[in-house]
Amino acid sequence: MDRHLLKIVVCPVCNGKLLYKKERQELICKLDALAYPLRDGVPVLLESEARAITLNEITL
């Protein structure tokens, strides 16, 4: 994930900051408890493609 891209990409639901989780290839929105996948290094920022995450996953 390009760190310059990570600085400008925001959650499509709340416009909040996203955290990159390299091991799962996901962008995490703590505010909405959603994880957006990366496919071939490209963020898929569609709410319909996001998965809900648990509180444990948010704090890791």
TrEMBL record:
<dbReference type="Pfam" id="PF03966">
    <property type="entry name" value="Trm112p"/>
</dbReference>
<protein>
    <recommendedName>
        <fullName>UPF0434 protein TPER_HE00534</fullName>
    </recommendedName>
</protein>
<dbReference type="GO" id="GO:0005829">
    <property type="term" value="C:cytosol"/>
</dbReference>
<dbReference type="InterPro" id="IPR005651">
    <property type="entry name" value="Trm112-like"/>
</dbReference>
<comment type="similarity">
    <text>Belongs to the UPF0434 family.</text>
</comment>
